[in-house]
Each structure stands twice: as C-alpha cells, then as structure tokens.
Amino acid sequence: MKQDHLTLEQLADLLAGQLDPEVMNHHVLPHFLAKCPVCRSRFEQLEQLQKQVGHWDERVAVFEGREAPALLASLQGLPFEEQLRKVTEEGEYQTWAMCQLLIQESQDLVFDQPSRAIGAAELAAVISLNLSEAYDIHWVTDLRARAHACLGNARRVLGELRSAEAAFAQAEEFLDMSMTGNEEVRAEILHLKSSLLCQQRHLGEALRLANESLALYRGRKDALGVSIVLVKKAKIVEEQGDLQAAIALLREATGEIDVAEDIHLPAYARHNLVVCLAAAGCYEEARDFLQEIKPFLQDVARPLDLVRLRWAEGRIDSGLRDDETAEQALWQVRTEFVQRAMAYDAALVSLDLSLLLLRQGRTEEIKALARELIVIFEAQDVRREVFASLYLFQRACEEERITVELIQQISQLLESEQRRKSRQ
C-alpha cells in the first residue's frame, strides 16, 4: 500500500473536488487508511460486503447488503405463494443484494434441503427479472444467468431433470446476451451444467464443459473454483469407469482446497477419494487415508455423507478381510438406508453383506437378506426386469446356487437402474 504524502497540487485538487479518481483510489485513500486503524477496519468491512453482494458499486454493497438479510428474514415462514407475490410486487425486495443473497441461500441449502433451495432460486430468478434500470443491464443479465443456473442446479439435485434442463437453457440465453465478458459467471454456469449432463449420462459433453470451466478458473487464478471443478471432473471420469484418473484428480483437488474458503468441499473431496481408493482395490491406502481424515470429516460432513463414509469403511474392512468389523459397519449402514427409505442404497449394501456372508458360508443369512430385498422393492416403482433379477437372486439363494459373479451382476444392474431413475 503506497503511503507517500500528497503533493501540494494533489491536495489542492482534492479540496476543490477535482482530484483524478485514479489518484484518489490508488494514492490518497491508501495513504489515509494506513494512518487510521478504525477507517482501515471499516474499509475491510466494505470490501467484505462487496464480495458478499457481488457488485462493484460500494453504495450497493453497503446499503443493499445490510438490508437484504432482514428482508430475507421477513419472508421466512410465509407460504411460498406469498413470498413470490412480495418479491414480484414490492419494490423493496427487488434489489441486487436481495437476489444475490437468495442465490447464496439456495446454494447453501441445495444438498440438505433441495426443495427449499428450489424456492430460494425461484425467488432469485423472479427478482433478477424485475431489477430496475438503475443497474447496468449487462451486469443484470449476468445475474439473471446465475439465478437461472442456480435454479437448474437445485432442480437437478431433487431429480427434476427436465425442468433443470429448461432452467439451464434460460441461463445460457442470458449469458449469450451479456456483454460483460465475465469469465467467472461463465465458469460457474459451465460447471453447474456439467453436473446435469453427468446425471443425464452425457458424460463426454459433461467432461468437455468441466474442462472449459476449469480453464477459465485457472486463468483467473481462482483456487476455490479450480478445486470445485477438479472434484466435479473426478466424478465424471469415475462414472466413465476410469478410477485411476478420478483418484489423481481428487488428490490434486485435496491439495489445493483452502478449508477457510469452503468447509464442505474438502470433506466431499476426501470422502470421494476414500470411496474411489476402495473401489479400485487400494484397501490399505484407503484405510490409512480414512484414519487420517476421519476426525475432520466427522466435524464437517453432512449426516448422509457420514453414512456413506461408514459404508466405504465397511467395504475397506471387507477388502482387508476384517470380516467382523466390516459386517458391523455394513449392517449399521443398511439399517440407516432402510430407515431413510433409500431402497437402492439399502439393496446395494445388502449385496455387499451377501458377498461377506458367502465368503463365510453363511447361506441361511443370505437367504434372509434376499427375502427382505424382495419386500423392500415390492413397494418401489421398478421395471419388470429389475424385479425379475431380484427374484432370480432370491431363487439362487434359496437353492444355494449363489455365486460371487451373480451378486456382482445384480449389484451392477441396481447401480445402473438407480442412475436411470435419477435421470427421470
């Protein structure tokens, strides 16, 4: 920070109100801030507000940024139709900061409460379409693109893939209309859409968008953006069946993530790395890494993520032939999935248990598991061939013709069907 004193000419221009803004911002302001810790603290607070609000104008950041949380709180508890009416008709809600706050709210809720995340994103999208001409139209167009991409992502997480696709189409239309050239907005929308394409099993196109987004974030030297896309890219290549590439990407991501910037991303990346190592048969490495990161994950991971982590732990122990410990973990996870009515996951854990029990010759317990699977899936809307395969599995168990290969075939079928249903 430059701290040289003002020249006589600069002081004269300042007092006359004619000082060059560049000189004011890059010379005079740093000089005065260096001399006063109170003003310096307030300046840092202003910078933080600008970052949260996502707008270059300091007045928007201060005045709208401080009002938005109270406005959001005033919507809480109201029926969604009333919330929608307020943001459509009442001007106090139609601000840049309010739209930005709702986008952030949706992003925070998307994995734990996707229905509420959709509501927040819908409100943000409505506000973005009702912003006044006081804002720069191209900045507003970028905000509209972000709001609709956020809505598309929330719909994707809830499994509403067709409406998610429509929201992303609107986001891309706004992005094409913008003249800002804002690479950060483009990178964000590309990486969000890559998740939708991955879920739709358009893996090649998903990987292309992820790579494009990654290049934009690298160009901006945005470490958090780079880490997010590396984790996303790892998921795509994992779905393509390239576990070694996924492991390499996750290793790179875990090395770059700053926990101070995002507390959940490092947990997600490390959890996925454990799962990929186990799936690749690297059981000892997976076990050692899991023990290293487990305390951190238990503090920050979401409840369902911890269940899935316990599942990976059971698979690792099974791979290391620690059958007693593995069985305890897998039964615990199966119970959790059954209680959450997550039929496909409960079935997949049951098949992991069947492999473990088959190794020990405990065929009667496998028979019981098979019968319970039939009961679980009788209440599900599944295709005839899926139910027929489960019935075949039960018959093989009853006749003691069960094999490792058959269990693996049924597991692959259920994983494929689970992905298919998530695309509907």
Give the SSE map.
Layout: H1 8-15, H2 21-35, H3 37-53, H4 58-75, H5 80-89, H6 96-109, H7 114-129, H8 137-157, H9 161-177, H10 183-199, H11 203-219, H12 223-239, H13 243-256, H14 264-279, H15 283-300, H16 303-319, H17 323-339, H18 343-359, H19 363-378, H20 384-398, H21 404-422
Helix pairs in contact: 2-3, 3-4, 4-6, 5-7, 6-7, 6-8, 7-8, 8-9, 8-10, 9-10, 10-11, 10-12, 11-12, 12-13, 12-14, 13-14, 14-15, 14-16, 15-16, 16-17, 17-18, 18-19, 18-21, 19-20, 20-21
Structural account:
The structure is a single chain. The protein has helices at 8-15, 21-35, 37-53, 58-75, 80-89, 96-109, 114-129, 137-157, 161-177, 183-199, 203-219, 223-239, 243-256, 264-279, 283-300, 303-319, 323-339, 343-359, 363-378, 384-398, 404-422. The mean pLDDT is 86. It contains 21 helices and no strands.
The total count of helices amounts to 21
Poorly predicted sequence stretches spanning 5 or more consecutive residues:
none
Structural class: mainly alpha
What is the helical fraction, as a range of percent? over 70%
In N-to-C order, the SSE pattern is HHHHHHHHHHHHHHHHHHHHH
Number of strands: 0
How many strands, what sense, and barrel or not for the largest sheet? none
Global shape: elongated
Q: Indicate the mean pLDDT.
A: 86
How many angstroms does the end-to-end distance come to? 55 Å
Share of residues in strands: under 5%
Radius of gyration: 27 Å
